[in-house]
């Protein structure tokens, strides 16, 4: 019992120190993802309280947050210098894609919001 | 049938042949469809129409035009309650009036046969002569020339100058159009509303009068003018429109939205004009008889006129049709019911459209079929004889037919000698031969269910409409039998034979009485009917209903009052419905249905929603706090120069797109949004591209350096 707690503690510390070395840009993106997911959580709690009456509104809210989170994760993957897959992709290009995809996502969300 | 007019060109011939075919087809269709027999204007209708025209204190009926309409209509209706003296005197006093008023003054004087003709002429002639010279529209021409022709004999100075007449004729020719319609006036262009119309028929009386006056002055133009006028007349009749089922009429211009007044007025104008023309031309104006009958059809079927003007148009058109030179439509009305007992002839009334009898025709029965049986014609080719002083034609129909029933008749009406009557082809109608049926041997009995022995029985007399009273319980049967005989001695099978049991609470039950052998018989077994009768005990009246269309004495006969004893209803059966005592309650308005609309969904309380709105914005604040904590900055943001502009416009454009989305959610529609989005996307793209490429260059420089 005690060993698992200490193991968990050790794991967390290790993660934290490893995380500290990530570049700031990536940390910003991570924060954005966390923010989106928190918003999703709030919406789900609200829906569980009052029922899903305008279901389309609920869905569009949730999908907007999750979509933004997903796009942010994609951006993070593309911008991360340690990622060999996207070595040739300039990060500005990735950012432009991110902006474009977000705009399209939000147009669809706004249409569905009703 | 339709000969070509002398001097007409070949296209007209082809046109006429096409018309002929069309009208033949229409006539055939008329024969095939069983149309209701046309009725002339009835006395009731005439009364109603006369009621439209109400005179003022000074004898007038409104304006001069309305007074003329009223006076002429009442003359056609043969009413004598027109204050002619007052009107004549008032009319003479009018002076310095327009050409139109002068026309109506002259017309009123003519209709009422005022003695002050010469004085009227003195007043109006100068006005009319000036009108003839200055006229540049059909209507003005019509008024001036028409009035002048009417007052020809009233005074000595009413002749029109020869040159003025030829000017008039030239103007008429100018206003004519190739398809038979006419321009309204010289100044109207091709596309004006009135030009497209049939206002033209005013040209006919005008032309007729002009021709008349021409002959007086012996102008040489005569023959060619007649030819062109006849062609125009025939073309005009080509514009006849059909309402289907043999109804033809003229309608006003296509732009005119008013219905009845337009069609009636146009039809009246054409009729009056063509009648005037026909009276004046030396040769007959050939118009297809079916067309004329179709116009009569229209005038009589159009229903009662809605205004005094419409009444005038209808009446005047009908009076023109009374002796229309091309063809006079006549209305053939065979009697529709014939009784064997009274032994009368089959009578056919033949009248004009206004109801006057027509004695100079030959009425022949082409064929008579018994409706229902596929039998050969019962009778064919019989002639009718004219019954003196009645306006009717009769023949001894009853001796030729075999029995009761409905017969379909086809009659043909041929005019004698030189008259030109038309009945619109063969007249189809049906006559029902009826008779009284004898009812005999009516037996009503109450039988015991098991043994069949009558517990009570009675023989009822039909003549006296006897009623008896009897009682029964659920173990017994009610038995009814009777015989029906037609006058020829054979047994008669009517269409309806029912027995009705009516409870004192007005609950009714109907039973069909079936035929058996020579008569009819019905047995009601109460044991089986207890449930159907809904366990209602009490007094029932037993009613016999017999009816048929060939039966003169169809009857509803209360045979007996029956005291019926039924067992009690078991638990749980529904009570019999309460029948409303008043029969009319069935037609009273039903109870109103309160429609329950879909309830709107339950929404959460506003406070809760607002709380969660705040809670949703919380992560955003957390995001900014986190950013500050991470040490994110915008130090590299270019604020000066082109780059600054690019940077600012890039972010500004993105912000404006988000604002557009917000507006889209609020009130815009997708199409507007997409249009604006396209524009804004362009606005985002250009600065974005420049700023991002600058940043890319910057990072590559950093890498290489």
TrEMBL record, chain A:
Domain of life: Eukaryota
Name of this protein: Dolichyl-diphosphooligosaccharide--protein glycosyltransferase subunit DAD1
Membrane topology: Multi-pass membrane protein
TM helices/strands, residue ranges: 31-49, 55-75, 95-113
InterPro entries assigned: DAD/Ost2
Subcellular location: Endoplasmic reticulum membrane
Organism per entry: Sphagnum troendelagicum
Main location: endoplasmic reticulum
Function, as annotated: Subunit of the oligosaccharyl transferase (OST) complex that catalyzes the initial transfer of a defined glycan (Glc(3)Man(9)GlcNAc(2) in eukaryotes) from the lipid carrier dolichol-pyrophosphate to an asparagine residue within an Asn-X-Ser/Thr consensus motif in nascent polypeptide chains, the first step in protein N-glycosylation. N-glycosylation occurs cotranslationally and the complex associates with the Sec61 complex at the channel-forming translocon complex that mediates protein translocation across the endoplasmic reticulum (ER). All subunits are required for a maximal enzyme activity.
Record's keyword terms, sorted: Apoptosis, Endoplasmic reticulum, Membrane, Transmembrane, Transmembrane helix
Record-stated family: Belongs to the DAD/OST2 family.
TrEMBL record, chain B:
Lineage, opening ranks: Eukaryota, Viridiplantae, Streptophyta, Embryophyta, Bryophyta
Domain of life: Eukaryota
A Pfam family recorded for this sequence: Ribophorin_II_2nd
KW Transferase (keyword) present: no
Record domain Ribophorin II third: where: 441-564
Signal peptide as annotated in the record: 1-34
Positions of the Ribophorin II second domain: 331-432
Cellular compartment(s): Endoplasmic reticulum membrane
Record-annotated membrane-spanning stretches: 607-630, 642-664, 676-696
Membrane topology: Multi-pass membrane protein
Record keywords: Endoplasmic reticulum, Membrane, Signal, Transmembrane, Transmembrane helix
Role of this protein: Subunit of the oligosaccharyl transferase (OST) complex that catalyzes the initial transfer of a defined glycan (Glc(3)Man(9)GlcNAc(2) in eukaryotes) from the lipid carrier dolichol-pyrophosphate to an asparagine residue within an Asn-X-Ser/Thr consensus motif in nascent polypeptide chains, the first step in protein N-glycosylation. N-glycosylation occurs cotranslationally and the complex associates with the Sec61 complex at the channel-forming translocon complex that mediates protein translocation across the endoplasmic reticulum (ER). All subunits are required for a maximal enzyme activity.
Subunit structure as annotated in this protein's UniProt entry: Component of the oligosaccharyltransferase (OST) complex.
Name of the protein this chain belongs to: Dolichyl-diphosphooligosaccharide--protein glycosyltransferase subunit 2
Domain Ribophorin II N-terminal residue range list: 41-322
Residues in Ribophorin II C-terminal domain copies: 597-696
Pathway(s) per entry: Protein modification; protein glycosylation
Protein family per UniProt: Belongs to the SWP1 family.
């Amino acid at each position: 019992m005690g060993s698992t707690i200490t193991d968990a503690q050790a794991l967390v510390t290790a993660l934290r120190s490893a995380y500290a070395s990530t570049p700031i840009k990536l940390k910003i993106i991570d924060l954005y993802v966390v923010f989106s997911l928190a918003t999703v959580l709030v919406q789900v709690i609200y829906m569980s309280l009052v029922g899903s009456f305008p279901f389309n509104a609920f869905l569009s809210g949730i999908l907007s947050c999750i979509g933004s989170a997903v796009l942010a994760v994609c951006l993070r993957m593309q911008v991360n210098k340690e990622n060999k897959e996207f070595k040739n992709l300039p990060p500005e290009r990735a950012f432009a894609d991110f902006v474009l995809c977000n705009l399209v996502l939000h147009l669809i969300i706004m249409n569905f919001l009703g | 049938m339709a000969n070509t007019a002398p001097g007409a060109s070949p296209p007209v011939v082809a046109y006429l042949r096409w018309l002929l075919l069309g009208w033949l087809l229409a006539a055939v269709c008329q024969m095939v469809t069983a149309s209701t027999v046309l009725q002339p204007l009835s006395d009731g209708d005439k009364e109603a129409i006369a009621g439209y025209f109400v005179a003022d204190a000074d004898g007038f009926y409104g304006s001069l035009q309305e007074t003329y309409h009223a006076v002429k209509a009442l003359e056609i209706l043969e009413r004598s309650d027109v204050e002619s003296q007052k009107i004549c005197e008032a009319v003479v006093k009018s002076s310095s009036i327009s050409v139109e008023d002068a026309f109506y003054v002259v017309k009123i004087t003519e209709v009422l046969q005022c003695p002050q003709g010469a004085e009227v002429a003195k007043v109006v002639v100068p006005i009319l002569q000036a009108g003839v010279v200055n006229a540049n529209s059909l209507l003005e021409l019509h008024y001036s020339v028409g009035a002048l022709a009417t007052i020809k004999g009233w005074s000595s100075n009413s002749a029109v100058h020869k040159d003025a007449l030829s000017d008039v004729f030239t103007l008429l020719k100018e206003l004519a159009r190739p398809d038979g319609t006419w321009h309204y006036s010289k100044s109207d262009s091709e596309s004006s509303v009135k030009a497209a119309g049939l206002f033209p028929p005013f040209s006919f009386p005008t032309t007729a009068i002009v021709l008349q006056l021409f002959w007086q002055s012996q102008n040489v133009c005569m023959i060619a003018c007649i030819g062109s006028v006849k062609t125009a007349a025939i073309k005009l009749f080509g514009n006849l429109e059909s309402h289907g089922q043999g109804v033809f009429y003229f309608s006003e211009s296509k732009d005119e939205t008013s219905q009845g007044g337009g069609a009636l007025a146009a039809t009246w104008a054409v009729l009056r004009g063509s009648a005037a023309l026909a009276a004046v031309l030396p040769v007959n104006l050939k118009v297809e008889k079916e067309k004329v009958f179709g116009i009569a059809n229209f005038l009589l079927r159009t229903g009662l006129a809605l205004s005094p003007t419409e009444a005038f148009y209808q009446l005047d058109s009908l009076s023109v049709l009374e002796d229309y030179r091309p063809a006079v439509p006549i209305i053939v009305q065979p009697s529709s019911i014939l009784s064997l007992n009274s032994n009368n002839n089959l009578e056919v009334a033949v009248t004009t459209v206004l109801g006057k009898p027509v004695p100079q025709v030959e009425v022949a029965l082409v064929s008579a079929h018994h409706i229902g049986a596929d039998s050969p014609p019962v009778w064919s080719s019989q002639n009718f004889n004219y019954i003196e002083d009645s306006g009717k034609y009769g023949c001894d129909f009853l001796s030729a037919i075999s029995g009761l029933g409905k017969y379909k008749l086809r009659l043909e009406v041929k005019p004698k000698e030189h008259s030109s009557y038309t009945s619109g082809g063969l007249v189809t109608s049906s006559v029902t031969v009826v008779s009284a049926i004898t009812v005999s041997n009516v037996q009503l009995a109450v039988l015991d269910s098991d043994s069949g022995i009558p517990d009570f029985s009675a023989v009822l007399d039909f003549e006296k409409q006897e009623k008896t009273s009897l009682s029964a319980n659920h173990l017994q049967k009610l038995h009814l039998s009777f015989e029906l005989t037609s006058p020829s001695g054979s047994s008669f099978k009517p269409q309806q034979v029912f027995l009705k049991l009516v409870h004192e609470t007005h609950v009714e039950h109907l039973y069909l009485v079936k035929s058996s052998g020579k008569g009819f018989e019905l047995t009601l077994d109460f044991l089986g009917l207890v449930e159907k009768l809904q366990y209602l005990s009490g007094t029932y009246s037993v009613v016999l209903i017999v009816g048929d269309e060939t039966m003169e004495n169809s009857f509803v006969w209360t045979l007996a009052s029956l005291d019926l004893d039924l067992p009690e209803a078991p638990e749980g059966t529904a009570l019999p419905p309460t029948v409303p005592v008043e029969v009319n309650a069935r037609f009273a308005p039903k109870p109103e249905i309160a429609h329950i609309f879909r309830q709107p969904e339950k929404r959460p309380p506003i406070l809760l929603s607002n709380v969660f709105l705040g809670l949703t914005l919380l992560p955003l604040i957390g995001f900014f706090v986190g950013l500050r904590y991470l040490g994110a900055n915008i130090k590299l943001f270019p604020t000066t120069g082109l780059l600054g502009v690019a940077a600012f416009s890039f972010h500004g454009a993105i912000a404006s797109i988000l604002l557009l989305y917000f507006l889209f959610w609020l009130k815009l529609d997708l199409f507007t949004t997409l249009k604006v989005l396209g524009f804004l996307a362009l606005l985002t793209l250009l600065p974005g591209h420049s700023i991002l490429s600058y940043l890319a260059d910057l990072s590559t420089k950093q890498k290489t350096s």
